[in-house]
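Late entry, written up from scratch paper. The run itself happened at the end of the previous shift, but nothing got recorded in the book at the time, so transcribing now.
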Amino acid sequence: MTDVNNTSIVIKGGTILDQRGEQVGDVRIEGGVITEVGPSLTGDRVLDASGCMVSPGFVDLHVHLREPGREESETVETGSRAAALGGFTAVVAMPNTEPPHDSVSVVQMVRRLGEQAGLCEVLPSGCITIGRAGEVLAPMAELAAAGVHIFTDDGTGVQDPLLMRRALEYAKSLGILLAQHCEVSRLTEGAVMHEGGCCSRLGVPGWPSVAEELMVFRDIELSRLTGAPIHFLHLSTAKSVDLVRAAKAEGLLVTAEAAPHHFTLTDELLSGFDPIFKVNPPLRELTDVIAVRQGLADGTIDAIATDHAPHPPELKEMPLDQAPPGMLGLETSLALSITELGLPLQQVVGLLSWKPAAIAGVAERHGRALEVGAPANITVFDPNLAWTVSSSALASKSRNTPYAGRSVRGKVRHTVFGGNPVVVDGQAQR
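Output as recorded:
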């Protein structure tokens, strides 16, 4: 890779887009930081940004890298390559690996693998409970001391309200953030898709919206009781969005994210029993999709997070009731957000960059305005480039994208991580 200590890089000819607005100008990088912003800059290496936006790097709050334990689906290296190609300079790695992120040794291993790959910063999350079993709290103080900021039992959700209260109290004392997968599991046993009209026609077990909404309501109240912040993962229903909106109006310490598939796809796509559209939480009805979009538009939902969940073909091609839930998301998130949301470009970038960076606790090095002295974690993208999603062209080890063949607009051209161009002209450099 480029030696950031000896080479100056200039991102030239683009439009800078960050928290402050837009400005035409070049960006010079030396020693891993931005050293000058202005017109007609020169350097040892030039990255052409003509027709492109130059923004702070994106941050994904919700990525399944699968390593350790399920390397046939993804590895830290392949997942971080996909992330870099999607414009992400940092990703939060979910803890449902084998073994899970409930010990310092596993967390350190995942972080080290990310450092070796060198394509983006990999931020391991920690488990709320040991083994994500929902019975005994994980050693959160030890994990926090090892640099973990976000804790979650993603994939299951903490079912016991007393245990969740204790976890929130503990988290508040440690200055860390709990992120909840909202699912009352007794209400979703055997379910394969959203409980609605499509589910009834197919005659398959349904997943009611209230299974999510009950836990959103419960944890808003527990946050109110304890004074601890809470982050809600992958909101998918209109009522969930309404609950978070009301909590924010009260000034409660609540944040939330939404995945691209929950603002672009509906449960009707499962009418052909294709497991490529099976995900947790499930694709919902059009009214829910519209509500999620509105939540992103009005600030109720703080961030777009991919919930990138790779699975190999032999698993995803199983019958609908047996196939695992999950979809790829890292390389299509930007394009889907630009193409489908109809939001101002600055707002889209905020949902992908500085807002999730703040939630992840990395705002000092990711998502910062592009000014002198800021770390050079930068995404350069063409917001108008039209392309068609191809599963075989994605960098992930898996191919389970629900968007194959879909025409979208917006593509990453360059990604600079720590001053290193890790993606140049749409090609990963490692």
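The chain has a mean pLDDT of 97.
(Scratch paper discarded after transcription.)
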